[in-house]
Amino acid sequence: MIHRYAFYDIINVKTENKLTSTVHVIAGASKGIGRALVEKAGKAGQEIFAISRSTPKIPSEHGQWIKGDVAHPEDFIEQLPPVVNSVTFCPGKVILGPIKRLKAEHMEEAYRTNVLDAFKLIQSILPRLTQDEKGSIVFLSSVAASTGLPSHCAISAAKSALEGFAIALAADLAPKVRVNVVAPTLTPTEMGLGMVGGDKMIPIIENRHPLKKLPSSDEIAATINFLHSRHAASITGQVLKVDAGLSSLRLNDR
Question: Regarding the domain delimited by 3-242, which CATH topology (the fold level of the hierarchy) does it fall under?
């Protein structure tokens, strides 16, 4: 069985660590990590423009929402302000399934929604982002890009490509714009829980992590905010793993 999990939406935000007149565009913000980022950044005072394929079930009090699909930025790009300071790209499709059941179109779909859509959005928004000369981009990847996990061939390939794109982009845009990646392990969002079969699986999955926990949406949002902030002014071209040690640590059984 092949599982698809879509998480599209964009949002323009006033971020944490209050940058003056900060406009932050967040793609993939109606649920999960993206929505947590909207709330955290909005409370910190950033200007928010939200773009999503559909209106969120529970509206946010922070910023405006514009209906649109990041695959077609030409449909909404002129509704964004002339200067953008930060962009966070969370969208993509998580396609899970063993190699014997994957089809070429599954691989293409994962690549298109994670990499090509990121490329289209960034290329469209770049004239606005480079106006400030202190711009910042953060892409949301996955621990699966660097850690072999069963049934993850499609999403692993797509997220690995996204990380490669981000690092090359950081070189292209230096010194005006910083580009970084956040690569979390499973986060217990609505989509994350759906992928693993619900709450009952969380203790088992937590036990596989050296820290015996999973990061919350708020933790990931705080990490993204940090990378956009002045406190990360010397950080670019990096993949920051928020994975409770899963990708790099192996502990003795206790």
Answer: Rossmann fold (3.40.50)
